[in-house]
Amino acid sequence: MGWMRCIAVAALALPVLMGCEAPERRSDVGVVAELSNGLRVGDYAPGFEFYGGDGKRVRFTDVRGDVTIVAITDAVDPNVCSIAGNILLLAERYSSIDTNVKYFCVSEPKGETCDLKANIVEKCGLKSIHVIGLCDAGGRVKRAFRVEENNVYFVVGGNGRIAAKGQLGNLGGLEGALRKAVSQYEKDLPSMISQ
Hints:
This protein is of the alpha/beta class. The protein has one domain: Glutaredoxin. It is 38% helix and 18% strand. The strands form two sheets. A five-stranded mixed beta sheet has the order 5-4-3-6-7. The chain has a two-stranded antiparallel ribbon with strand order 1-2. The longest helix is centred in the last third of the chain and has 24 residues, at 171-194. It is globular and about 45 Å long.
C-alpha cells in the first residue's frame, strides 16, 4: 500500500517538476487575436472622399447604395479581376426593385500614384452602374476602414453601419452577408418611407 501512495504523490508532483506551469506564466504576455482599433460589425462605416471622372470631389456617403460592398484589394491582377467580377455578379443579383446595391472596389497600386485608369473597373473591364472602382494611393481608404491587410470586404447596411466583414476569398460568406443586409433593408423600407 505504501508504494501505491508514493506513485500517487509522484503522479501529482510530476507535472510541476516537469515544468507544466510554464504555459500559465507565458499567458501573462498574451497574444493579440484581432487589432483592437479594427472596425467591428455594428460600427458606422467611415466616410471618405475621392475624385470622380470629372475631377470633382465625391463623398462616399453621397453615392453609396442602400446596401454597399467595400472591397479593399491588392493591385490589379487576374485573380483580383476574377474575384471582383464575382462580387459584381453578387451585387447585381441582390439589387432588387427596392434596393440599390453598390460595390466599391478599392485597389492599392504598387506605386505611389493613381490615375483614373489605375482602378479595377478600367483594368478588369467591369462596366456596371453597380460598381465604382477606386485607386487608393497611400492606402487612405484602407486606413479609414482600419485594416492593415488587403483582400478584405465590408458590407455596409442601409443604416450606414457595418453589417459584415471578412476575407475576399470567402465569397460564400459575402453572399450570405449581402443577402441578409438586403432583406433587412427591404424589411425596414416601409417604416423608412412612412417617416
